[in-house]
Amino acid sequence: MTEHERGELIILPDQVALAEEAARRFVALAQAAIADHGRFTVALSGGSTPRALYARLAQSPLNEAVDWANVLVFWGDERMVPPDDIESSYRMARETLLAQVGIPAANIYPVPTIGGTPEAAASAYEETLTAAFGTDAPRFDLILLGIGPDGHTASLFPGQPEVVRPSAALAVAVHNAPKPPPTRVTFTYTLINEAANVLFVVSGADKARALHSILRGEIDVARLPAQGVRPKQGSLVWLVDAEVARLLA
Ligand code: 6PG
């Protein structure tokens, strides 16, 4: 794989600048997608890193720069907890962003995490995706992703079945995730790599080694799942802060 295929690397001085640049890109992509095809489809990421991005997007003037009525929001992965649980990625996005910007409830597509198995949730989410996009091969305008210190992204964890033998499914159940909570639903590479734009947003000194291995090390997707993200016909951008980039020459 060439450096180019690993994506464009943009290093920001600190976490504030990182959130600002990520928010600026979100708005620009939303405006371009809505101008081009009438709507903006985005998959949000979980974890704590995007919190500052969502809060920034909820503030003026960026919140007014997006036509939220034409934004459709999904999650690239979700923890199998109720939507009001403190661990819910849906809840975090709702509190920091969605409840602030007046997006219609019908435009929000949380993973159905209650009342069934993660397998049932994954297959229901797949149906939701194909219905919303009107195709079996949904192409997101933007998929936001983070990474963990072990090289995972979304809920694609090292050594797990979907990473070792990627499936043609769009979303799958995850058990025994090393990052709690252990039971999850995640987008697959099949879905992620159809996206028009994938944006990794990464900060934190504890991820410096993982980031270096993902971007500069040997390709080993089973060990470093974030390396499996390679949009077939889309852009791949890594927005990182200086702290996490400290091992990159
Ligand atoms: C999750 C995410 C996971 C996350 C990264 C980064 O459920 O936490 O799906 O992939 O994006 O682990 O998380 P932090 O920002 O909390 O480090």
What about the largest sheet?
A: 6 strands, parallel
Task: State the secondary-structure class.
Answer: alpha/beta
State mean pLDDT (0 to 100 scale): 97
Bound molecules: 6-phosphogluconic acid
Strand segment count: 9
Give the percentage of residues in beta strands: 15-25%
Task: Explain what the structure shows.
This protein has 249 residues and is an alpha/beta fold. Helix content is 33%, strand content 17%. The strands form two sheets. A six-stranded parallel beta sheet has the order 1-9-8-5-2-3, covered by helices on one side. A three-stranded antiparallel beta sheet has the order 4-7-6. Strand 8, helix 8 and strand 9 form a beta-alpha-beta unit. The chain is globular, with a radius of gyration of 17 Å. The protein starts with 7 loop residues before the first strand and ends in an 8-residue tail after the last strand. The protein binds 6-phosphogluconic acid.
